[in-house]
């Protein structure tokens, strides 16, 4: 019973990565939009996009961290 | 079926570990294998030995290398300390060797270019974030931020070396770093702005009834920065390394299944592990960059206090020139500086 509940909890924790996926997609779609509008800024914008990507990806790893914690620590 | 309990097997296994050519145990195993074949105890034991894959979080265990206690306090030299020392000495050695002959060559070789690249990377970042109005600030905080960046730049990818220990995958270390930086930033904020630093918790132009909630909110978000700085680094390192571990464990288990189909299918997780190593290294370097940028942003908030428009109010309170009032309230600090220049040249 506890094992099953744990697995369900860990699985439910990974739902959060959907939000991170939307966020990462949003970051890069905005990058493409911006570069299409002003290609001369491409290099600078790519730096910002990578920064945004890293920040969003950190949230995604929070989700997987929760899953690991639930499944193997508690 | 030979009558032996599980404890019997355990004793036999222990003698095997102590003495690998224990003939009695080996004969016993052989007998078991010939009589029972695949269903026997010995076969299952061997399979269990082969399948024993350590858990994904086992790689993060802290082991005391030189145990040392003072009373109840734990001062052991552990594997994190070993790898931190290793990283630190590596960085120091690199910098030392490059700058050996009074500052290196005028035409840099590869190593010197690497060090110069790392060194040059930070001032741009600091100037971009903490530029502000005053020019002296960027030189003042540069060494601290540079050391933080260089250390985490070498410390994060160092964990990707097989059989090494990821120092930054522990709450203790990242939170220790981020809390000390956070306290330092708060002290710097009070030092530079005095009690005006408290105006940080209330943005300009907020209606008064909203103020209590906003102050609370801003205080919480300010204190949460210390946590988020540490947790971000920790979560990225730990999640990535655990993922690689889980996938390689799955590949290893499939390899030990003794089945041709699984043996071919084993290539899948193996290639995913190989492919993940690249992004992991990227994340390790990127997280050093990101945490440095976050530190710069926090430091900028503490020294320059919400920057746009807000700084102007504080300057006015401090008794700056009131002639600027009309033109530079909301503009960025750089244009404000130009405005000031324009004003002085005009007058």
Automatic annotation (TrEMBL), chain A:
<dbReference type="InterPro" id="IPR000454">
    <property type="entry name" value="ATP_synth_F0_csu"/>
</dbReference>
<feature type="domain" description="V-ATPase proteolipid subunit C-like">
    <location>
        <begin position="8"/>
        <end position="70"/>
    </location>
</feature>
<keyword id="KW-1133">Transmembrane helix</keyword>
<comment type="similarity">
    <text>Belongs to the ATPase C chain family.</text>
</comment>
<dbReference type="GO" id="GO:0015078">
    <property type="term" value="F:proton transmembrane transporter activity"/>
</dbReference>
<dbReference type="Pfam" id="PF00137">
    <property type="entry name" value="ATP-synt_C"/>
</dbReference>
<dbReference type="GO" id="GO:0015986">
    <property type="term" value="P:proton motive force-driven ATP synthesis"/>
</dbReference>
<dbReference type="GO" id="GO:0008289">
    <property type="term" value="F:lipid binding"/>
</dbReference>
<dbReference type="GO" id="GO:0045259">
    <property type="term" value="C:proton-transporting ATP synthase complex"/>
</dbReference>
<dbReference type="GO" id="GO:0005524">
    <property type="term" value="F:ATP binding"/>
</dbReference>
<keyword id="KW-0472">Membrane</keyword>
<comment type="function">
    <text>This protein is one of the chains of the nonenzymatic membrane component (F0) of mitochondrial ATPase.</text>
</comment>
<keyword id="KW-0813">Transport</keyword>
<keyword id="KW-0812">Transmembrane</keyword>
<feature type="transmembrane region" description="Helical">
    <location>
        <begin position="45"/>
        <end position="70"/>
    </location>
</feature>
<dbReference type="GO" id="GO:0031966">
    <property type="term" value="C:mitochondrial membrane"/>
</dbReference>
<keyword id="KW-0446">Lipid-binding</keyword>
<dbReference type="InterPro" id="IPR038662">
    <property type="entry name" value="ATP_synth_F0_csu_sf"/>
</dbReference>
<dbReference type="GO" id="GO:0033177">
    <property type="term" value="C:proton-transporting two-sector ATPase complex, proton-transporting domain"/>
</dbReference>
<keyword id="KW-0406">Ion transport</keyword>
<dbReference type="InterPro" id="IPR002379">
    <property type="entry name" value="ATPase_proteolipid_c-like_dom"/>
</dbReference>
<keyword id="KW-0496">Mitochondrion</keyword>
TrEMBL record, chain B:
<keyword id="KW-0812">Transmembrane</keyword>
<feature type="region of interest" description="Disordered">
    <location>
        <begin position="321"/>
        <end position="347"/>
    </location>
</feature>
<dbReference type="GO" id="GO:0046933">
    <property type="term" value="F:proton-transporting ATP synthase activity, rotational mechanism"/>
</dbReference>
<dbReference type="InterPro" id="IPR045083">
    <property type="entry name" value="ATP_synth_F0_asu_bact/mt"/>
</dbReference>
<comment type="subunit">
    <text>F-type ATPases have 2 components, CF(1) - the catalytic core - and CF(0) - the membrane proton channel. CF(1) has five subunits: alpha(3), beta(3), gamma(1), delta(1), epsilon(1). CF(0) has three main subunits: a, b and c.</text>
</comment>
<keyword id="KW-0375">Hydrogen ion transport</keyword>
<dbReference type="Pfam" id="PF00119">
    <property type="entry name" value="ATP-synt_A"/>
</dbReference>
<dbReference type="InterPro" id="IPR035908">
    <property type="entry name" value="F0_ATP_A_sf"/>
</dbReference>
<dbReference type="GO" id="GO:0045259">
    <property type="term" value="C:proton-transporting ATP synthase complex"/>
</dbReference>
<keyword id="KW-0138">CF(0)</keyword>
<feature type="transmembrane region" description="Helical">
    <location>
        <begin position="210"/>
        <end position="231"/>
    </location>
</feature>
<keyword id="KW-1133">Transmembrane helix</keyword>
<dbReference type="InterPro" id="IPR000568">
    <property type="entry name" value="ATP_synth_F0_asu"/>
</dbReference>
<feature type="transmembrane region" description="Helical">
    <location>
        <begin position="170"/>
        <end position="190"/>
    </location>
</feature>
<dbReference type="InterPro" id="IPR023011">
    <property type="entry name" value="ATP_synth_F0_asu_AS"/>
</dbReference>
<comment type="similarity">
    <text>Belongs to the ATPase A chain family.</text>
</comment>
<feature type="transmembrane region" description="Helical">
    <location>
        <begin position="81"/>
        <end position="99"/>
    </location>
</feature>
<keyword id="KW-0406">Ion transport</keyword>
<keyword id="KW-0472">Membrane</keyword>
<feature type="transmembrane region" description="Helical">
    <location>
        <begin position="243"/>
        <end position="264"/>
    </location>
</feature>
<feature type="transmembrane region" description="Helical">
    <location>
        <begin position="270"/>
        <end position="299"/>
    </location>
</feature>
<keyword id="KW-0813">Transport</keyword>
